[in-house]
Amino acid sequence: MSKNIVVIPGDGIGTEITTVAQEILAIAAKKAGLNLNFSVVAAGGAALDLVGEPLPAATVAAAKAADAVLLGAVGGPKWDAVEPKLRPEQAILGLRKALGLYANLRPIRVFDTLVDYSPLKPEKIKGVDILIVRELNGGIYYGEKGQEGDRAWDVENYSVPEVQRIVRIACEAAKLRRGKVTSVDKANVLFTSRLWRKTAGEVAAEFDGITLDHMYVDNCAMQMVLAPQNFDVIVTGNLFGDILSDEAAVLTGSIGMLPSASLGDGTGLYEPIHGSAPDIAGQGIANPVGTILSAAMLLRHSLAADGAAATIEKAVEDVLVEGYRCADLYKAGMTKVSTEEMGKLIAAKI
Predict the structure, then answer these.
(1) Catalytic residue among 11, 185, 232, 242
(2) What is the DSSP secondary structure assignment for residue 75, as one 8-state letter?
(3) Which of the residues 102, 158, 186, 270 is marked catalytic?
(4) C-alpha to C-alpha distances, 49 to 12, 57, 63, 98, 233, nearest whole angstrom
(5) Which of 105, 98, 42 has the alpha carbon at shortest distance from 266?
(6) What is the pLDDT of residue 252?
């Protein structure tokens, strides 16, 4: 069976981490009897430099025609001065819109061997396994926005169908986990959150065995630090999900470890949650694990290859247990390895 995968390296460390992840993806897929055809296209700052726009039509067309998209990272100070509509980050927003991606899945799992890297005490962080389900295609990021003189505005807007579909995805995910969904909002202040809370309750009631609780976003941010072990699946809107998932990333000790999947009506998009890190680009020290685990999510969600995904995840854990670390997680007593070396170690395990 042959599948087509589009790779978008993007900017900064994007080329380094996607090269490693692509190799591991190909190895794991082949072992599972899947043949993957890869094509590399440009987006972000790289595309801006190449053709004068961050998301060329050809890139969108390739993504739509593919079975999955693997993305590195986009952006960097080099393009800070360009006008807003041409910023590299517009490529991400544009891809999400073009592909109809409305659900961002961000697993926050703390490996036992990395418990000591967390800023929290080991007894608070051990065993943490959270899935954040962030609504991705609505809310304030996509609402009406503008500026007149010394006044600016960004409009938050959600509809019942938008909330229904994202909460259903959260409930379906919880069925395969521990059965608990925490819906996060600001219903004491925002009308959109009141609609969100009411709709979430109605959807969760459709699912047997699912426990739903509601939490204000400020309390959730606090509880994420005080008692992260209490969370299973968190579902929330675009802005709150953006903030909370980055907060949760710190729990693991390094943002370089965390993957994500963006799913919806079209081709799935997979990327690490970190940025392009231009300050370390080209040095071979970036941690590719977040991108490698994103490739595992690609196998699971877009290619229905759970076994191959699990093989990658087990290989990552085995290499970490053996004490190999990239620069972001290195400490005395460990073995420091480069981006490429980490990839080769994980590939060897597969």
Answers:
(1) 242
(2) -
(3) 186
(4) 13, 15, 20, 22, 40
(5) 98
(6) 87
Q: Is residue 334 helix, strand or coil?
A: coil
Please tell me the distance from the alpha carbon of residue 34 to that of residue 26, in angstroms, as a whole number: 8
Q: Which residue out of 64, 124, 141, 318 is catalytically annotated?
A: 141
Q: How would you write the pLDDT of the chain (350 residues) with one tens digit per residue?
A: 799 999 999 999 999 999 999 999 999 999 999 999 999 999 999 999 999 999 999 999 999 999 999 999 999 999 998 998 899 999 998 999 999 999 999 999 999 999 999 999 999 999 999 999 999 989 998 899 999 999 999 999 999 999 999 999 999 999 999 999 999 999 999 999 999 999 999 999 999 999 999 999 999 999 999 999 999 999 999 999 999 998 998 898 888 999 999 999 899 999 999 999 999 999 999 999 999 999 999 999 999 999 999 999 999 999 999 999 999 999 999 999 999 999 999 999 99
The Cα–Cα gap between 120 and 40 comes to 40
| Helix %, strand %, coil % of the chain (to 5) | 45, 20, 30
Catalytic residue among 64, 246, 330, 344: 246
The Cα-based distances of 296 to 107, 115, 208, 261, 270 in angstroms read 12, 22, 29, 10, 9
In the residue annotation, 85 being an active-site residue is answered as no
What Rg do the C-alpha atoms of the chain give, in angstroms?
20
Question: What's the longest Cα–Cα distance across the chain?
Answer: 60
Helical (H) or strand (E) element with 215? strand 211-216
Q: Quick check: is 331 catalytic?
A: no
Taking CA 120 as the corner, what is the angle to CA 117 and CA 126, rounded to the nearest 5 degrees?
75
186 is catalytic: yes
DSSP 252-283: TS-GGG-EEEEEESS-EEEEESS---TTTTTT
Contact assessment for residue 55 and residue 8, using Cβ atoms and an 8 Å cutoff: no
Q: Please confirm, yes or no, whether 232 is among the known catalytic residues.
A: no
Domains, the chain:
1-103+259-350 (3.40.718.10), 119-251 (3.40.718.10)
Residue 185 known to be catalytic: no
